[in-house]
Amino acid sequence: MYVVESKGGAIFCMFLALFFLGTWPAIITLLERRGRLPQHTYLDYTFTNLLAAVIIALTFGQIGDSSFEKPNFFTQLSQDNWPSVLFAMAGGVVLSLGNLSTQYAWAFVGLSVVQVIGSSITVVIGTTLNYFLDDKINKAEILFPGVACFLVAVCLASAVHSSNSADNKAKLSNWSNDNKTETEAELSCLSEEAVQKNVTKDVENGNGHIQKAKAGTATFLIELEKRRSIKVFGKNTLIGLTLTFFAGICFSLFSPAFNLATNDQWHTLKEGVPKLVVYTAFFYFSLSCFVLALILNISFLYHPALGVPKSTFKAYLQDWNGRGWAFLAGLLCGFGNGLQFMGGQAAGYAAADAVQALPLVSTFWGVVLFGEYRKSSRKTYILLFSMLFMFIAAVGILMASSGHRK
């Protein structure tokens, strides 16, 4: 099998994973804002996310001859390594729960804020756990200042969200002054009415004309609400923040679980049984993620959450609008996670948590694709740029802490 061994190769894997993991949430958010039901999108994503793990296992995991220390993928499937397999599958379960939570959180508090808070929690908890699990191969004097940068970033993210919410409220309160027919009172009821009016509309193309409204204006916010599948007007953003923090806790556990699966620090394997290689562990990791996501999203088709319209499995199979984008999101996430683990196995999983700076990429897509922070206040812009600066610093510092696993 192919193994990443050099520090340079590990850092390359991390940078590529950073781009992939920062891009797929933007695609999912784009589809939700176009009106596609999140249950449909996430089911599509789930299939290709598993496909990415299978492709990695059958290529990198099968390259070259198999040895005792580095058995190929098919060789390991028949070995008695179930304790490590269970650790890998536990990591997949918490990742699936985290991804599912963020899917709804993005609608309430925005792509940028969700990614910042979730990633910061992941780094603070997950990096600390990985540092001790990896027997401190990463440089603590460099690693933990990088973690501190993430802590500062999460505080700034909360401030950005608060400031941007105040900006949006101000825009909507001035709606009647812009010679529009809707009043602020009507806007507060929009979410309930829009759900009923839009169920029978084209869920992909929507019934609004969001392209005609300038990003950052009250008109833009209102037409976005009419078109999207998850209605947020009149709902407390505390829902979104709660989902975000729950997702962050889940994300902070999947990498340490994978670390235990591949390095067996707790000595759970029987004597003479080789440790799981990255590709085999990633296959089991993705398989458990797939099974849980399949069960939960099929359930959500018939019993949706947060006011999302009901659907059926038949309706899902017939909904091809945006399916290609959802498939792409799953592939990007799958390959991104695989590259993160490949880099982590070589340079330490604590350093590989640098990919959690994915809000750098997500914020870029949020601004370019969705008009987030357009026409916001000066205070919001200052907080936003300060937040991004802290992430840039964190990426450099965490990657500089890379060690070398013997």
Automatic annotation (TrEMBL):
The chain crosses the membrane at residues 6-30, 42-61, 81-98, 105-130, 142-161, 237-261, 281-303, 324-343, 349-370, 382-401. It comes from the Eukaryota. GO terms for cellular component: membrane. GO terms for molecular function: allantoin:proton symporter activity; ATP binding; uracil:monoatomic cation symporter activity. It holds the Pfam family Ureide_permease. Keywords: ATP-binding, Membrane, Nucleotide-binding, Transmembrane, Transmembrane helix, Transport. It is a multi-pass membrane protein. The keyword Isomerase does not apply. This is Ureide permease. It comes from Corchorus capsularis.
